[in-house]
């Protein structure tokens, strides 16, 4: 068999490589899912530049969003570099920098409050506190496990993720709520957000539970997912202090350019800004 054919053992070896590179579990899962999709499409054919470019075109024909295509190409290029097939790597799609966010995906502070109110009405205390914790701190869903009884008592959580360590300050009022909840659940130490069996909540369960609030909160499902709470936090924080450097540090971003993406406003707000310029007689 040619060394340029993609085999299951090669994919397994690539998975071990990602582990040694200290990629996060979510990144590994995403990369391997994309690589398996490429392998399925490739079949018994040998990897070559023509076919990797063809796969890129096929993704576009299948209706994938440009950002999604680039994410899949990132996984593919990483594999090709690992296999020493750099000549087969493909260029990313060029995406024009967006000026504003899709209004259908912008989670407002009002939407956030509606989610909290719905959780309260339904008696879903854990879910309400979870939404509030992510929304009030801007943490990633993968960082929820760092919200422990010990961290809450100290008023700060030390997060180690993506090769970086940062400290997340927890609002005093939130700490009091979390400690009261932990005491009620008889959780003396460790992670506060757990399943009924005592295991830490996983990202999929968090995602599903948040989605379940939509119809009761009157919020569009497309707006409600953990990472959007992080965007909402960034927007509210920036409007309060106008310090993008501090915000970037709080979010754990390596680049302010990444933080800038979080601060995109909706098209409607952009339109109001244009109207206020007073350039139309």
The name CATH uses for the topology of the largest domain is: hpI Integrase, Chain A
Radius of gyration: 22 Å
* Strand-pairing-aware structural class: mainly alpha
Structurally, the number of domains stands at: 2
Please outline the major beta sheet.
2 strands, parallel
Q: At the first level of CATH, what is the class of the largest domain?
A: Mainly Alpha
Brief overview, please?
The protein has 281 residues and is mostly helical. 57% of the residues lie in helices and 6% in strands.
What do you see in this structure?
The chain is mainly α. It folds into 2 domains: 8-88, DNA polymerase, domain 1; 103-271, hpI Integrase, Chain A (Orthogonal Bundle), CATH 1.10.443. The chain contains 14 helices and 4 strands. The chain has helices at residues 8-20, 25-42, 49-61, 66-82, 109-121, 125-137, 149-154, 172-184, 203-211, 214-217, 226-241, 244-251, 256-262, 267-276, and strands spanning 100-101, 156-161, 164-169, 265-266. α2 crosses α4 (66-82) and α5 (109-121) packs antiparallel against α6 (125-137). The longest helix is centred in the first third of the chain and has 18 residues, at 25-42. The chain starts with 7 loop residues before the first helix and ends in a 5-residue tail after the last helix.
């Amino acid at each position: 068999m040619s060394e340029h054919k993609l085999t299951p053992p090669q994919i397994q070896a690539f998975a071990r490589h990602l582990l040694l590179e200290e990629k996060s579990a979510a990144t590994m899962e995403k990369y391997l899912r994309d690589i398996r999709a490429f392998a399925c499409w490739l079949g018994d054919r040998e990897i070559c530049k023509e076919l990797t470019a063809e796969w890129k075109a096929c993704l576009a024909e299948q209706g994938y969003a440009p950002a999604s295509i680039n994410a899949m190409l990132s996984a593919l290029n990483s594999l090709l570099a690992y296999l020493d097939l750099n000549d087969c790597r493909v260029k990313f799609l060029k995406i024009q920098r967006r000026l504003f966010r899709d209004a259908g995906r912008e989670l407002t502070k009002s939407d956030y409050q509606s989610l909290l109110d719905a959780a309260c009405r339904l008696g879903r205390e854990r879910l309400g506190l979870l939404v509030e914790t992510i929304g009030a701190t801007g943490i990633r869903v993968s960082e929820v496990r760092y919200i422990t009884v010990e961290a809450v008592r100290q008023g700060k959580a030390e997060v180690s993720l993506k090769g970086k360590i940062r400290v997340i300050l927890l609002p005093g009022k939130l700490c009091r709520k979390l400690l009261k909840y932990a005491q009620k659940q008889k959780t003396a130490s460790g992670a506060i957000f757990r399943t009924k069996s005592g295991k830490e909540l996983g990202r999929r369960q968090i995602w599903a539970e948040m989605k379940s609030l939509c119809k009761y909160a009157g919020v569009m499902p497309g707006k409600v997912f953990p990472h959007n709470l992080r965007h909402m936090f960034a927007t509210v924080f920036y409007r309060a202090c106008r310090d993008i450097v501090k915000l970037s540090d709080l979010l754990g971003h390596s680049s302010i350019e990444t933080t800038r993406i979080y601060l995109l406003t909706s098209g409607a707000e952009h339109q109001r800004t244009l109207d206020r310029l007073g350039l139309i007689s």
